[in-house]
Amino acid sequence: MDAVQAEVLEESALRFVISSKWLDRVLARTSDYQADHHTKEMREGPIGPVDNSDIVSPMGYATGLRDAVGLPYVPLRPGLIKGVDYEVLPSMAWSKIIKWYNPGPQYPDIIRYTHNTAEPPQQNLEDEIYPPVFVVCRVTQTDDVEPPPTILHIEKFGFNADPRGRGQASPEDSLVIVSSRQEVFQDFLARVKKYAGIPLSTKVKVWRLLNGGNASNGEQRAENNDSSGIDTSKLNIPPSKFMQLEVGTHIEALNVTDQTNNPNYNGRSNMDLFGLCRDDTLLLEEQVRDSVGTEFMSDSKAPKFASANAKAASAPTSRRTSPGPGAMLTRGRTRKDERTRGTVGLNNLGNTCYMNSALQCIRSVEELAVYFLSNQFKNDVNPGNPLGHGGSMAKQYAGLLEQIYGSNAGGSVSPTSFKKTLGGCQPLFSGYGQQDSQEFLSFLVDALHEDLNRIIKKPYNENPDSDDSTVHDPKAIIELGEVYRSNHRARNDSIAMDLFNGFYKNTMECPVCDKISVTFDPYSLLTLQLPTESAFQHDIIYVPFEGKPVVHEVDMDRSSTVGMLKQDLAAKNGDISPERLWMIEVYTHGIYRVFDNQAQLSEVQKSDHIFMFELQYAPTFLPLPTQKSLYTTYSRNSANNEIPSMDSPRADCFTVPVYPRKPGRYTSSSSQLTMHPFYITVTRDEARDLELILKKLVWAVSQQTSRPILSEFAAVTREEGERSEAMMDDDARVSDKSNPSEEDYVDVQLRRATEDGGAAAKFFNSPRSLPEDLVSTMFTVNVAKPPSNTSAFFSGGSNIDESSIRPLASRVHQSRQSTATSSESPVDSDVDEDDKADSGVDDDKADSGGEDAPDAIDPLWIPDPEEITSRAGRRKQKAKGKKSKRFLDFAKKRPKVSRQPRRGSNASEPQRSSKASDNDDGEYYIKAGEAIVLDYTNEAINAMFGKRHVDDGDVRGSWLSSTDGQGLERIVDPKYRTRRARREERRKHGITLEDCFAETGKREILSEDNAWYCNRCKERRQAAKTLDIWTLPDILIVHLKRFGGNRSFRDKIETMVKYPVWGLDLNGKVGLKEDNKDYVYDLFAVDSHFGGLSGGHYTASAKNFYDGEWYAYNDSFVSKTNECAVLTKSAYLLFYRRRSANPLGPAYLQDLVLQSRASYSNEDAPDSGEDRLGEPTTFSPRGSSSNCGAEVGEVEQTEDKSAEVMSTLEEEVVNDDYDEDELHGSIRLPKSSRKDMFVEDDEEWLPNDDDSGTNVSEPEVDDLLE
């Protein structure tokens, strides 16, 4: 991956495609390239050899095809996304992967090439992942021609001698040829002619089969094509069959001449230029040269057979003379084939649906189309504008309109020349990837504006800031707005400004000095925020520093950060400082991820177990935000691998993860992680104090068990002779856990004492030391380092480096003086352990003593409720002829310890001599970037955590926490419930365009990353921003902001937005009304996006200004539709025009449109009235099979049209078998009377409220914490 990031792309470089699914298994185990989408399963099991099966198409390895260079070609599944499904590696990186993870010769490399997709000298290098694959057939001169001996004919070409490389299992099979969008067309044609057995001296005419099968990604041919009636699986097509095909319906001719036998030809036009950029079926018609001079048999049907498409295809490159200004290029409403002008599709040139849909919408603006078709634009071309493109974009757009509205236009045209120029002007659109339709449209409007800007020399006029004394004066604000607008007009004057230009009013309020700044900004597309919440709903297990863990049900916006979540939870838990909260993800008892404050909540998956720990202090050693690579989709977290020295300021205070472990199930010589990790915080000075570190550990453990171990510690200390006072007599409160009437047994349990610093602080600061034997009977304390492939915060799943584990006490040469070295156990005993061994005293008998002798108290001893203790706290057994109940009757059998782990407690831990600590010189028992490992004994786990259900006779403790939140108290904020209810309401009924306008105009606080510079404070401030619409254009393009985030992470909002077709009244939303205009708008086009972020498809619906009908445009396919169909939840861009009895725009533009209308109004008349754009009409959805129009009926009042249509749609769209793909073309809207319409597609996750626990039997104690 270092090679990938450092690589500089070169044209024609060899590239290798690899599955992201397999690559993630490798990168998930590294520390430098972990990504948010890496799951835990990716780290489990062996990596295995390279596996690309998920991206290779079925039978892809078996096609045998070869590319244009002659190397094996492996076809991929369609629709794959780079960074999601696959990655592309350079040769150096691929060679290393093959060396380490070779899949074998049966799986050839997936080879692709880098090409420059921009027009030289500009450069935009991209990998061609999906090169076009063509099925090629030969139209023979006679019906009885035998297949040529192609195998012998091409043996001289070496690697192509194998017919499988061109898709032939036999000579009768058609060819399957892998090409490239950048391959020179004449080279491709020469190659294909040789494979087909056609001499280079024989010219051919190339035809494309329309709607008739393609190479299917190189795997199979289309057989017995239904639309054409020919069998494209065979190489030869009889001429009799070919002559039955109709141009424009079955086939179309490519506007290219065969130059393969011309040695003087030096043209370099590539496949992309002729629209050969995706899989297609091509027919090669051979030259005939008959006696009457016909060169091709298809010439006999000219001109009807070939002229229509040939003229249309040649338009962009012919540079032919256009009619002069003032004269329309076309006359009449209909074409020669009697179809309405402009009902023409645009061929998809390879992921160009984003461009096609936007072009179909904007070219439906009558005023703009007439301006170009009348060649008025030529008077305004500004080739010297440095911000323009020399007029090239304007000229190409004009040429495209000529193709679309020409009288000889076919069913569709290929915007190849337009796309090439577009890529040359903006390399972002030069490649093969899917782009944003809104981004393209914004660029197009701006490019047309700059190419046609009538201002030759732009003056420099500085816009003033608002005056503090007049910011609340409406008249002064209007004057200020006019200054901004006049300054803008002085530099910008074009057809784009005449139709699309409006202004925002932007108000900023400084939170410090209260300065108010008012400015005005131009726009050509009005962006509206959607008032929907992309919710992050999750259970957060909150572990307080003092108290029981609880579960917080969180419901926040998905774009919120971890820092925002910490602020929210801190306020709900005693208003603590958010800096004291530490958020991790736990997986298989280990730390999978430590979240930095800037991480987004959207990175958390639904199945993740998220813990939020309240720390004692705010740490200074924090995880750094993830740095996203500019070259790959993976994150580089190398900064989090750097462990600071103890002299670094970052080590002033640091967190120490604590890993609980238990003895292995089948052998006592191994340990395994149990429960979940927890944390203690240690300052630099505290890291030198072993006693304090142990107290912090004991305190943390005491908060996770229901057993009052701190009280038992105090009792043991008193039995050691400390009778003068209790260990924490004034620092704790007394809790009587026995029968209130019994005063013999009093249990001391620590409680929160906020008035004097808390019980924890009293416990830590107590001069009393912990009994050494008492700690060692619970667990041994070890220190460990992180593995080399994880961060310094132990994230990544590998957790701890087993080889680094050593006793904590061995870190410092001179350990502290033990407080309990005078006795072998926490109580006085008459028998020393060594003396017992020498004298042969029975251990069991020594444990129990005589009938009248009191038992020695075990470190974790709990008396029977019937046993009596003195009021002074001295525990004596009452002689009842019965022994006390014990669960840890083993302390006296242990040798004396000095914070050392017991011998043989974990065979996986290295057995170190006293010299081991010499290698770890220093004064710190624990350092930043290290962890503590608590190795519990089985007895301790049973005594502290063994209780699983309510049982009065079971005096063991229970675990108060959980690995997944089950069984914990749940806390739900009422505001979250309100938010869910509001979201559910919107799910049922959708939102309106009015809601979107209101959301966009809301006052918002800027984020820290987007702070505003206050010229009074001279600093950046998180100001309050309010955005208002100041002026509105005649043509209003509304951009519904469905895509949130940035280009590396985006989220789509699928909510239905109800928008009116007729009568969008914006009079109450515009700040400045110009010339007493009435701001009521009618819809005339919709650009829709179907699908998700990783792909999707754009289509358009637009109203034709010749006949006033609605048409659906899906790339090259066009069909008539109606107003019901344009109301879709997939709407992305809405095109409105201001209602007016006259054409829109300045006087010159109105005159052009009126001349245009007059030029065809006398020639032919509409058969259903003047349903023109922008004029009041009656609702009549003609030409549709939908029952929408019949149910809506004829509505005379235009203001009621939208409500009527939407009401009908609400009644019908909710049906379960409703298919939104049917919103275009011949739509079917199932009938239904249900009212819960407009249900979102996105699934809303709700946490499980089942808190019920399960009872287990005693033998299951070993598994109780798994």
TrEMBL record:
It comes from the Eukaryota. Residues 903-916, 1177-1188 have a biased composition (Polar residues). Residues 827-836, 1209-1222, 1239-1252 have a biased composition (Acidic residues). GO terms for molecular function: cysteine-type deubiquitinase activity. Residues 213-235, 305-343, 720-745, 809-922, 1160-1266 are annotated as: Disordered. The keyword Zinc does not apply. Its EC number is 3.4.19.12. PROSITE patterns: DUSP, USP_1, USP_2, USP_3. Residues 1-115 form the DUSP domain. SUPFAM superfamilies: Cysteine proteinases, DUSP-like. Keywords: Hydrolase, Protease, Thiol protease, Ubl conjugation pathway. Belongs to the peptidase C19 family. This is ubiquitinyl hydrolase 1. It comes from Piedraia hortae CBS 480.64.
